[in-house]
Amino acid sequence: MNIATGNLLDFIGLALGFLLTILIFSYFLGDNPFFRLAVHIFIGVSAAYVALITINNVLIPRLILPVINGTQGERLLSLLLFIPSVFILFKATPLHKAGNWSVAILVGIGAAAAIGGAITGTLFPQILGTINSVDPSAYAITTSRWDQAINGFIIVVGTVTTLIYFHFGTREQTGQVNERLPIIEKISIIGKVFLAITFGALYAGVYLSSLAALVERITFLWEFLTNIGFTLFSSF
Amino acid sequence: MNIKLKAPISTAIAIGVGIVVLAGYFIPSITNIRFILLRTGLVLAAVALLVGIINLLTVHIKKMGSEGENSGYSLILIITLLVTLAVGIIDMLQTYLAGQPNFQMTNWVFTYIQLPIETSMLAVTAVSLTYAAANILRKRMDLFSITFFFVILLVLLGSFSVPPANIPFLHVVHDWIIRVPALGGARGLLLGIALGTITTGIRILMGTDRPYGG
Q1: Considering the domain boundaries, does residue A89 fall inside one?
Q2: Which of A115, A144, B148, B172 is 20 to 30 A (C-alpha) from B197?
Q3: Residue B113 in contact with residue A45, Cβ under 8 Å?
């Protein structure tokens, strides 16, 4: 960052960034109007930015441009796409029920894509990964096979017990409080420990990222102030 | 079993379209239809997102009219939203009408307004997370909290590479935690999420759940 050699627009931007950072950092003193002001600016800018990205990256290339310079098939498809798109806009008006069928298309496609994605993208790869961790033929030759076998066993135990922790099915008993089977209850304690380890590792990762962001912001504030000082002194 | 079907057309559309898309994953001859439907879904999702933003704008216009305590913030939100939109639309017009790909003004807004706020918010969470981690054992002293706290400590200490805190043994422990038990737990979580997604998807495709007003 060198304000002395930058143009005026960059200087205004940096000053704005400095001000917004201070407004957000005012949260260290507790919730206050300055912080809320910055948050509302953020929501407004983010919403508009997301809208612009959506229009520029999805609606223009997939809905508008094919109508203007696409083949006959693409033109027809895009024109057909306009009908549910217009009806979905009714959701923002008092005639919102008119958009239900368009939302039904979106929900139907979304549900099917989610099922397909979950099966091919998560379920199969994760199950295969778990199986491979206890498969001796998949072990690396660089480290001890016993190490890999023990680690693989721990991974399998972690995966299975975590899944069991989320099993809340009970037997229905009249006049008694429904409780999980004692064996499930005991196994779920192990699952809880694995969950604590996973969440702990995730927490530490997020914490390290936020620390990096804090250091970056403090460096920015310091550099901005130093550069302002440099500009003021060099003008004399 | 008595099922009250309020919107049979919407339900039939959702089920029909969903089954065709799902079948497209397994039957190669209808893969093209699946791609066309996925493109339709993408465009509709984009329009739905715009509806969400229009709704945000309407809610804040109403809030501003009510002259409540937070009406000033709503005004700020509306102004920033409309100004950013206007800037972006000018950039887009320049790009598509004049044929010069130029998103300079939008990039300026992103670099000097959105990015500093986002990074500062993440920086603020550093303090909140420190406070929360310090309070874990004070609030609840059980197996989960103790494990959680010590894993955070070990992973953090194992991540530092600054000389006084650079302990090789902790690096080994850090790597092992990430590679073995945390991986096992994460796999369990991911499989649980995938199973939950499949169950919810099937409920929608069977018409049991109708989140489209049916």
Answers
A1: no
A2: B148
A3: yes
Give the ipTM of the model, two decimals please: 0.88
Residue range A125-141, pLDDT digits in tens: 999 999 988 888 877 77
Supply A133's token pair: 């961790």
Domain enclosing residue B22, as ranges: 8-51
pTM metric for this prediction: 0.86
Q: How far is CA B211 from CA A101, A106, B8, B15, B208, in A?
A: 11, 11, 13, 12, 10
Whether B170 has a pLDDT exceeding 90, the answer reads no
Number of domains in chain A: 2
Low-confidence ranges of chain A (pLDDT < 70): 1-6, 173, 175, 230-236
Is B126 a domain residue? Answer: no
Interface of B with A in 78-137 (CB under 8 A): 78-85, 88-89, 92, 96, 106, 108-127, 129-130, 133
* Domain membership flag for residue B125: no
So what's the pLDDT on residue A3? 55
**Residues A64 and A148 both lie in one domain:** no
Q: Do A52 and B129 touch (CB under 8 A)?
A: no
